Amino acid sequence: MNARQTGGDMEPGSQTDAALRLSDGQMLAIVRAYALAFILFGFAVSGPAEIFDGLIRIVTARDTLITDYIGVGGMGAAFVNAGLLTLLVSFVYRLCDANIGGASVACLFLVLGFALFGKNLLNVWLVVAGVYLYARFRKEPFSKHINTAFFGAALAPVFSEIVFSSSLSLTASIPLGIATSLLMGFVLPAVAAQLFNAHMGFSLYNVGFVAGVIGTVVVAVYKSYGFVPEPVMIWTTGNNRILGAFLALVFASMIAFGYFIDRQSFGKLGALLRLSGQSPTDFIARVGIGPTFVNMGMTGLMSAAYIVLVGGALNGPTIAAIFCIVGFSAFGKHCLNIWPIMAGVFLASIAKPWNANDPSILLAALFGTTLAPIAGRYGWRWGIVAGFLHSSTALTVGVLHGGLNLYNNGFAAGIVAAVLVPVITALRSRDPAESAGADRRPP
């Protein structure tokens, strides 16, 4: 992938041999190692019987926002669900011979995080199957769309909601849930390719934006027939010490691994930090696997520290948000472009009638870092503005999809970017070189 193909954000000669040191199989082995760490942690904090019972409760949960799997099935079951699901997904990547670059790393760590918060061993597969059917229909390899498929599992709660919360009998709700999920997956790739142009890569969660649009249409249709998703609020607290210690070890290991694989990782980190992050920006291809993993560990520690500093809770949803940041730290996020977004949301909590540690605002500060490319390209001041606007938008759009899009902040951020970036561009310059990069395409 050369500079032109990725939007000209790369310095000449910055692509290094370090990006080629690990094969796709080795990259998947690293992901599996972290998935196994989740499983081992789960068994360390809970017994087998408790975990088994908890997994049953998790796969039969409704999963509407906000459903913390630690509160549903217990801490052990939540982490085992996350680890097992990620192992299965990594096997699918291997089976499809998919390329494991920055986008795939982001997707896999996103699965690992969100399997504490909405994605489980049952509900993700039908959306993925819908994308597979689309690939077969187009006579294209599934590997071309595999990231879209597993990112698109943001809509997994639709299946759970239809099957486990409707007044229909299972003989009716199961076929309806299957058909709806397959249809959503089938249309997802085509819609994702089109809607990318709306935010021009300035929101990294393109599929989150797409899932919000598709989820809005699906919920609107179901509401017209009298089916209205009921709100859910399961949010655990009191586990900061044990979860904080686990996360610190995980992120420290990422930094150590990055240094081990490339002793020049810290020196090369400067080149990574100079990238705007506008999608598609594959840090692994541009600076190598070593600096990328150092960046992932650093942003993980930074985001966990933010939660603790504002008095928030480490739980399923917030750890999902942290691993979303960590995953996308291989594909667009770094310490310099995420802090302005978080600062903007924090400032909004001072100026508006809510607190920084309220669940929705805490998640907005973390997931809102999808807007990091705005700070990366236009500066920290515009990043703060983006975060400030995002805090309000994220609280408003959830009603449209009934909480059935796990990437609610991705939906909100796509709207913010679509409105804010053209305004910034118009105010800054009329020079086409300063434009938003309309020639970019989603990963």
Walk me through what this model shows.
The protein is mainly alpha-helical and 443 residues long. Helix content is 67%, strand content 0%. It has helices spanning 24-45, 48-59, 69-73, 75-95, 102-114, 125-138, 146-151, 156-165, 170-199, 206-224, 240-261, 265-273, 283-287, 289-309, 316-328, 335-351, 359-367, 372-378, 380-401, 408-428. α8 runs antiparallel to α9 (170-199). The longest helix is centred in the middle third of the chain and has 30 residues, at 170-199. The radius of gyration is 20 Å and the shape is globular. It starts with 23 loop residues before the first helix and ends in a 15-residue tail after the last helix.
Offer a concise description of the structure:
The protein has 443 residues and is mostly helical. The protein has 20 helices and no strands.
